[in-house]
C-alpha cells in the first residue's frame, strides 16, 4: 500500500475534531496525539454536536472537499451514535475513531453492551457527578483570589502562589474536570515578610498546594498586565518567588512550577500529590 506524500514544507495538515457533544474529549485526545509531531504544522477545526446522519453527511462532504492525493486531512472522532459514526467513517480522510474501537474492547471485557449515549461521554449520564462538578465550579468562582474566605473547611484543595502564577485557571480546570472544590489564595507583600501562612488558610495547611514559576516567565506575564511597573520587575518577582518557595518548604507544602507546564499537566501533578497524601 503506497503512503501519501508528506505535505509540502510549511503547509499545515488539516485536522478535524468531530463529536456528538461539545467536542472537548475529541479535541483533548486529538491534540495529545498530534502534539507528538512538533515539527509538523496543523490547521485544526472542531465540529461538535453531530447528532444526525444528515449532519454527518454534511460534515463528510466538507472534509472530503479538501482531501487530495497530496493532502489527506486527519479526523479524530468521539461520536458515540453508531448510525452517525457509520456515516462519518465513509470519509476519504484518515479517520481515527477514538470512541468505537476502545468501546468494543471494554464491552468484551465487561460482557455488557454500551449505551452509546452522548450524555454519558460527557458526564451527563451520571447526574449526581454532573451536579457535583457544577457546585465545584461555583465554589471555585466564589473563592477565586481570596474573594471569599468562608467555608474554607469545605475545600478539597487550596492553591497558594504569588500573583499571576496560574492559580485561577488551575482551580477552574480541577473544578470542571474533577469536581474538586478548590479555593485559591494569593500571597502578597506582607506574607513574604512573615514565616507564617496567611491567617485565613493557616488552619488548612494540609489542604494547601503551592504554585511557582521562573522569574523571567513571571516578569513577562506581569509585564503584559502592568508594563514597566515594580510589580512586573525582575527583582520584585525574584524576591516573591524565593520567599514563596521558602514558605512552602517551611510548612511542607508541595508545589509545582507553572513556567513550562500546561494547566492539564499541573492538574495531574496536583492530583497525584493529593492521592499520595491520602495514602
From TrEMBL:
Cited PANTHER family: PYRUVATE, PHOSPHATE DIKINASE REGULATORY PROTEIN 1, CHLOROPLASTIC
Enzyme Commission numbers on file: 2.7.11.33, 2.7.4.28
Organism: Luteipulveratus flavus
Listed NCBIfam families: PRK05339.1
Keywords: Kinase, Nucleotide-binding, Pyruvate, Serine/threonine-protein kinase, Transferase
Protein name per Swiss-Prot or TrEMBL: Putative phosphoenolpyruvate synthase regulatory protein
Annotated residues for binding of ADP: 161-168
Family: Belongs to the pyruvate, phosphate/water dikinase regulatory protein family. PSRP subfamily.
Amino acid at each position: 500500500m503506497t503512503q501519501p506524500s508528506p505535505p509540502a514544507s510549511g503547509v499545515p495538515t488539516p485536522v478535524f475534531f468531530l463529536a456528538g457533544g461539545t467536542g472537548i474529549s475529541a479535541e483533548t485526545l486529538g491534540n495529545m496525539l498530534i502534539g507528538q509531531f512538533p515539527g509538523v504544522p496543523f490547521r485544526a477545526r472542531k465540529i461538535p454536536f453531530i447528532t444526525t446522519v444528515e449532519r454527518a453527511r454534511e460534515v463528510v462532504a466538507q472534509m472530503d472537499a479538501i482531501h487530495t492525493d497530496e493532502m489527506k486531512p486527519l479526523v479524530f472522532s468521539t461520536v458515540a451514535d453508531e448510525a452517525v459514526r457509520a456515516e462519518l467513517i465513509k470519509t476519504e480522510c484518515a479517520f481515527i475513531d477514538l470512541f468505537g474501537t476502545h468501546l468494543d474492547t471494554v464491552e468484551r471485557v465487561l460482557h455488557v453492551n454500551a449505551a452509546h449515549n452522548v450524555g454519558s461521554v460527557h458526564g451527563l449520564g451520571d447526574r449526581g457527578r454532573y451536579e457535583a462538578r457544577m457546585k465545584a465550579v461555583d465554589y471555585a468562582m466564589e473563592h477565586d483570589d481570596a474573594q471569599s474566605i468562608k467555608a474554607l473547611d469545605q475545600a478539597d484543595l487550596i492553591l497558594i502562589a504569588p500573583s499571576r502564577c496560574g492559580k485561577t485557571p488551575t482551580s477552574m480546570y480541577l473544578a470542571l474536570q474533577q469536581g474538586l472544590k478548590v479555593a485559591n489564595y494569593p500571597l502578597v507583600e506582607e506574607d513574604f515578610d512573615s514565616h507564617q501562612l496567611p491567617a485565613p488558610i493557616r488552619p488548612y495547611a494540609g489542604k494547601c498546594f503551592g504554585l511557582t514559576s521562573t522569574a523571567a516567565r513571571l516578569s513577562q506575564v506581569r509585564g503584559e498586565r502592568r508594563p514597566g511597573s515594580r510589580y512586573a520587575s525582575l527583582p520584585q518577582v525574584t524576591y516573591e518567588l524565593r520567599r514563596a518557595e521558602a514558605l512552602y518548604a517551611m510548612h511542607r507544602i508541595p508545589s509545582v512550577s507553572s513556567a513550562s507546564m500546561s494547566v492539564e499537566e499541573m492538574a495531574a501533578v496536583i492530583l497525584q500529590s493529593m492521592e499520595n497524601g491520602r495514602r
